[in-house]
Structure formats: structure tokens, C-alpha cells
Write a structure and sequence with these properties.
It contains 6 helices and 42 strands. By secondary structure, it is mainly β. A hairpin with a 3-residue loop joins strand 12 and strand 13.
Length: 691
């Protein structure tokens, strides 16, 4: 069994400066302090790449200087990882969670979180506009509504629509790492963790510092960002802000956006308190975003969030938190016109209490959450009485006339049995939603990992997931769409089998991971057409997703060597419908990636100049209705495979960095969504100063 004393020690930060030959995935829970030092830039082509390691509760694992290196595997064994409610060490964890590290973020030619996720082999990123202005993110063939998106462990998924889920109040410069958990995870993260979860972890606990950055390039793109970090004794905080604008790479795709983010922490011997607050806002041309019949759409989004949490230290860990998230949306069907215009304001607020402790039989964790979701709208929800109407902020004669709300109660219990070569993690979620359930429903899961030798790791898991319909699924109605107020929650049974092999070489490390998955979906939600002259209906049907992934990569040990890393990663997926309803056109669920391949190459050029290359090839199933001059041709066009090549050059010094990047070097025209062409060649350059 594991050492209880390790799990009962006070929380402490640990700094990682390089990987040893035992690299493992991590999905760090909220409030674990982590510092990632010098990591080799290796194979962002799959986020089954070099797995970053995170905070531990063992105070002996806190290096005293930035020049020390963690090379002892016994130290890495004590590092806390969590794809579960309970914090488990790296060798004890029964699930693989992929991590995009800070070093990888800096090396790749990415301007947004969405750009980074394109390189994750199990993630499908469908952009409606360049620079991640609006993006649909899904995992393992699912849809954009079937994942939970978290910021430092806080669920920021939007019940209005998953189209707006990726509006983050943080910029790339704020991010320490991105963690991706594939497969159903409802027993840990509740509703919407139907197909997996993505957690954005921000930088924290660093010495006092100031950073500013400037950028500019193609299509009148310009931007600036700044970040100030302060650390004094037990108190640490940071505040950051970003602004960016562009004329747009395609018709009606101009945008302005900004965000601001604050986080603060007080880390005492017996407890820790964390605060985070943020705002993101953007206005943008939405060319054919929701219907190619209207190329002049326009949209404005704002999001505000506030989260206060705490954690006690010792053998029994208590984690209370409260949160509030407000999202506003103004959509114009025809730009600068009130025709088809609508307004929405969504509030999500609640509280959560978690606890975990170790004892002779293993490690047990539990949590309880109360989450309220509410919307006021001009088009979504149930009609209100006239005396209940609310005036839309900034509008003299426009009122919110519709409203809906729902309360979600979630109780989770988990136990972990930890042996020398085995980890067995089992848990259960009891969930009730006032809009859909008359009683609590159960969602179980079990994960098993077996490590026969230091080189091999085998894993298997089963988890049941669910996803509640969004307010858009239930109520949206337009000339081209019709919601379904009788929509039911969708359910999946997710199975995974995999193996990981790794070996240390004289000049680097070689790692290969293989994984297969099968997700059996019932009452899957999608927008479908039943005939060529039909509108899109929100409907339920039965659909199974299955597939396999393989990634292999080599990472250099020496940062001064010419070749730093190389990778080749591939995923194959297949779908099977179990119901018999004839469907003419699926808008999302059946437009999945059959093939995705990502290859990366990282190398030095001279002195401090380095280059990172990424080749991405995708083949999407499904088809779209072709429009010409905003007119439906009645012709279904299959998606064509495409490839993109990106490169980023970086000249780095301790106090500044110069960079230049080119995306889609071949200037290839391609489509993630029908009738919405993606940008061709784009070149950006920038300067970053550090004080």
C-alpha cells in the first residue's frame, strides 16, 4: 500500500526542471501549487506528449534553487496527480491525462487556447473564424457541448450554448499548462463531462515580475498584453490584461477583443485561500456562422467570473468554494440591423465542498455541489408575464421577455485501492436536476492501472457520462432552426483500453502510447434535417463512437543539442448509429474526424534561435449544404481532407524574446465548417519583455 504519511503532509510546491525517463500525465486539482521549470519542447503534435508533473503534498519535494533537477524516480512517484476526486501520486493514478506544458505553449505557432488544442490528437477544433474568435471543441468524436471546460478547476461551461464555452478571461501568457482528460468523467466533474474535460491552469506562485508583449501582422492584426505578478511572504497574486484587433482574413470577420484576469492566494501552514476573477469581451463579424443564408451576421459576447476557494491541510483535506459566472450575448442576424437580433444573459452560481483523507484501506474522497443555471433572453426560455420583463442593458426599447432556470444537485463518492503494481479507483455520482429529473440518478465509474515494469503501463476504464441539453437545444427558433422543449439528457457508457511504453536512451527518451476507446451513446443530441427542404431540428438519437490512437515521440535530454524533439501522432475514429430514423443532414454529431495526423519537429538553428514545425492533416466525415451568393444550391458537398503547415521562430534571452510565426504556409483553402473558409497564410511577429 502507499505511504499514508506522504498523503498527510502539508501541501508544498515542487519545481520541475526536466523529465526523467518516467514521464506521466497529470490532471491537477484546484489549488495545487506548481512551478514548471525548464522543459524540453517536445512533440506538441499529441498532448499524449511529455507529461508534465505537478504539485505534491510532500514537503521534501521542494527544490531549493532553480538549478536543481528532479532526476530520482522515487521523487516523481510522490508527485500528486488527479483524474479522480482523490489526489493520487503519479504511479498510483489509474487514468492518463494529457498535458500541454508552458514550454510547449511558448514554442508553438499558436495565438489562442483553441490553436493549441488543434494539435491535440484526440481533440477536434472547428473554427468559425480566425484567431479562435468562435470555436467548437470536442473530444473523441463527440460534440462541442459534450465536454466540461474548467479554469483552475472551476467549471466554466456555458448552459446557453457550447458555442460560447471557449471564451476565456485569460491569454496564452497567463497559462501554465492545459490538461486534457479523454473519456466520460461525470463521476468527477458532473454534467457535461460526457466525453471528457479540459482544464486551463494559470501561472501562480512566481517571484515578483512584470511582462509586456506586443504583436502585429497580416490583415491589420495588432495586439498587446501585460502581466504583473507579486509575491510577498505567504501572499501571491497576479493581474493581467490583453487586447487584440484585426480586419479579418475573410469577408465580415473583423474583430476586437480583450480580457482581464486577477488571481490571488494566501498560503498558510494550515490552510490555503484562493481567489480568481476575470472578464472577457469581444465583438466580431460572424460571416455565415449559424446559417450561410445570412453572411452579414454580427455578435458581441461578454463574460464575468468570480471564484473563492479554500483548502485545509493535514490528514483530512476540506475544499469549500463558491462561484459566480455571468455571460451576455448580443446576436445580429444582419449586421447593424434589428432584424433577427436577440439578447441573452446567463448566470451560473453555486457552491461546492469536497473532502479527502487516507486510511488503512486506501484513499477516500467525496464532494457535494449545488449549481444554479439561469437565463433571461429575448428568444430562449419560457414566456414571462409582462410585469416581469427586464430591460436589456444599454437598450431603451428592448426587454428580456423569456426566462428559464434549473438547479443541479450533485453528490460524489470515490475510493482508491493502491497496491505495489495496481491502482483501482472506483466512484459514483448521484445527480438530480430540477428541470429534467424527479429523483437522483447514478453515474458510476472504475479505472484500473497495472504497472508490471518501469517501462510498461497498462490501463482500462469504464465510466458513465451524461449531458444536459443547453437552453439553445431546448428553445432556439429561427427561419433555419427549431429547438425541442421535450429534449432529454444524453447518456454514454465509455470504455478505454491502453498501454504505454517508454525507454531512456543515451541522448533522449522514447515514448509510445496506444489507446482504444468505445463510447456507447444514447439519446445523443444534435441538430438534424430530415429532408432537403427541412429546417434543422434539435433531436435525440443513438450513436456510438469508437476509435484508436497511436503516438510515438523522441525527446532530447540536452537542451543544447540541435534536434530537440520529433513526434508522429495519429487517431482513427468510426461511428455507428443504432436507431433507424432517416436523417438527411447532421449539423454536428456525425461530422467527425475519421482521420487526424499531427507531426512536429523542434530544433535549434543557431545560438538562441530555435524553430518549431507542425504538420496537421485531417479528414472529416459528413457533408454540408453548398451556398452560392447566400443562396441554397440544394447540393450536399462532402468535406475534403486538408493539411496545414505552421512554423514559429524564437530568439530568446533572459529579459526578452523576439518571435515570428507563419500559419498555413501553403496558403491552402480549407473548411472546418461548411461555407466558412478558414484563413490562408498568416504571418505575425512580436516582442516580449520581462522585468
Amino acid at each position: 500500500m502507499y505511504n499514508n504519511q506522504t498523503l498527510c503532509s502539508s501541501a508544498a510546491a515542487v519545481t520541475f526542471h526536466r523529465f526523467s525517463h518516467a514521464g506521466y500525465a497529470v490532471f491537477a486539482s484546484l489549488n495545487r501549487e506548481v512551478r514548471i521549470g525548464v522543459l524540453t519542447v517536445a512533440m506538441l503534435g499529441s498532448v499524449h506528449l511529455a507529461k508534465a508533473d505537478v504539485a505534491t503534498r510532500n514537503p521534501d519535494l521542494n527544490p531549493s534553487s532553480d538549478t536543481e533537477e528532479l532526476t530520482d524516480d522515487r521523487e516523481l512517484d510522490a508527485v500528486t496527480v488527479a483524474g479522480t476526486l482523490a489526489p493520487l501520486t503519479q504511479l498510483q493514478s489509474a487514468r492518463i491525462v494529457s498535458v500541454i506544458s508552458r514550454a510547449q505553449i511558448e514554442a508553438t505557432a499558436a495565438q489562442t487556447v483553441n490553436d493549441l488544442l488543434k494539435l491535440a490528437v484526440g481533440v477536434d477544433v472547428r473554427q468559425r473564424g480566425g484567431f479562435g474568435i468562435q470555436t467548437d471543441i470536442s473530444i473523441d468524436g463527440g460534440t462541442f457541448d459534450q465536454i466540461t471546460i474548467l479554469l483552475n478547476g472551476l467549471n466554466i461551461s456555458n448552459p446557453h450554448t457550447g458555442h460560447l464555452a471557449a471564451d476565456f478571461p485569460v491569454s496564452i501568457s497567463d497559462i501554465e499548462r492545459i490538461e486534457i482528460l479523454e473519456g466520460a468523467a461525470s463521476r468527477v466533474y458532473g454534467a457535461s463531462a460526457f466525453g471528457g474535460a479540459i482544464n486551463i491552469v494559470t501561472r501562480s506562485g512566481e517571484p515578483t515580475n512584470v511582462e509586456v508583449g506586443f504583436q502585429g501582422g497580416s490583415y491589420g492584426t495588432a495586439g498587446a498584453d501585460g502581466r504583473v505578478g507579486i509575491k510577498s511572504g505567504r501572499f501571491a497574486s497576479s493581474i493581467s490584461g490583453t487586447w487584440q484587433r484585426s480586419d479579418g482574413a475573410t469577408l465580415n470577420s473583423d474583430f476586437n477583443r480583450g480580457n482581464a484576469y486577477l488571481q490571488a492566494a494566501w498560503n498558510d501552514d494550515d490552510y490555503r485561500i484562493d481567489l480568481q476573477g476575470g472578464w472577457s469581451g469581444k465583438s466580431y463579424g460572424a460571416n455565415t456562422f449559424y446559417s450561410a443564408a445570412y453572411p452579414d451576421q454580427y455578435e458581441r459576447n461578454n463574460r464575468f467570473m468570480l471564484n473563492l476557494g479554500a483548502e485545509t491541510k493535514g490528514c483530512f483535506h476540506l475544499h469549500p468554494e463558491v462561484f459566480w459566472i455571468r455571460s451576455t450575448d448580443n446576436f445580429e442576424l444582419i449586421r447593424a440591423s434589428t432584424v433577427g437580433e436577440n439578447f441573452h444573459i446567463t448566470d451560473v452560481y453555486g457552491s461546492r465542498v469536497g473532502a479527502d483523507f487516507s486510511w488503512a484501506a486506501g484513499h477516500t474522497a467525496m464532494s457535494a455541489e449545488l449549481r444554479e443555471e439561469e437565463i433571461y433572453s429575448t428568444s430562449l426560455g419560457l414566456p414571462m408575464d409582462e410585469h416581469q420583463y427586464l430591460r436589456v442593458h444599454g437598450e431603451d426599447y428592448t426587454f428580456y421577455t423569456r426566462h428559464d432556470e434549473r438547479t443541479n444537485y450533485a453528490l460524489s463518492l470515490e475510493h482508491n485501492i493502491l497496491l505495489d503494481h495496481w491502482t483501482i479507483s472506483g466512484g459514483l455520482l448521484a445527480n438530480k436536476n430540477t428541470r429534467f429529473d424527479s429523483h437522483f440518478k447514478l453515474y458510476p465509474g472504475v479505472d484500473i492501472a497495472y504497472t508490471p515494469t518501469a517501462a510498461w503501463r497498462l490501463f482500462a476504464s469504464y465510466n458513465k457520462g451524461f449531458r444536459l441539453p443547453t437552453f439553445t437545444d431546448l428553445y432556439y427558433k429561427s427561419p433555419t432552426h427549431e429547438g425541442n422543449i421535450g429534449m432529454r439528457a444524453e447518456v454514454s457508457h465509455s470504455f478505454q483500453l491502453g498501454a504505454k511504453w517508454q525507454t531512456a536512451l543515451a541522448n533522449g527518451r522514447w515514448t509510445t502510447t496506444a489507446k482504444g476507446f468505445y463510447h456507447r451513446g444514447s439519446r445523443m443530441i444534435d441538430w438534424v434535417m430530415y429532408a432537403a427542404d427541412d429546417v434543422f431540428h434539435s433531436a435525440n438519437f443513438d450513436l456510438d463512437n469508437m476509435g484508436a490512437q497511436l503516438d510515438t515521440r523522441w525527446t532530447a535530454n540536452d537542451r543544447s543539442s540541435y534536434l530537440q524533439g520529433i513526434s508522429l501522432c495519429y487517431t482513427y475514429m468510426y461511428q455507428h448509429r443504432r436507431d433507424k430514423a432517416d436523417i438527411y443532414k447532421s449539423n454536428y454529431a456525425m461530422e467527425y474526424l475519421r482521420h487526424k495526423l499531427v507531426a512536429t519537429l523542434d530544433h535549434r538553428i543557431v545560438s538562441r534561435l530555435a524553430a518549431s514545425w507542425t504538420l496537421r492533416w485531417q479528414d472529416r466525415m459528413g457533408s454540408y449544404i453548398k451556398y452560392e451568393n447566400a443562396t441554397n444550391t440544394g447540393q450536399l458537398v462532402s468535406y475534403s481532407p486538408y493539411a496545414t503547415l505552421d512554423v514559429k521562430l524564437r530568439w530568446t534571452k533572459p529579459n526578452y524574446e523576439l518571435w515570428c510565426e507563419a500559419t498555413n504556409i501553403t496558403d491552402h483553402t480549407y473548411y472546418d465548417l461548411g461555407n466558412i473558409p478558414q484563413p490562408g497564410l498568416m504571418v505575425l511577429a512580436g516582442l516580449r519583455l520581462k522585468f
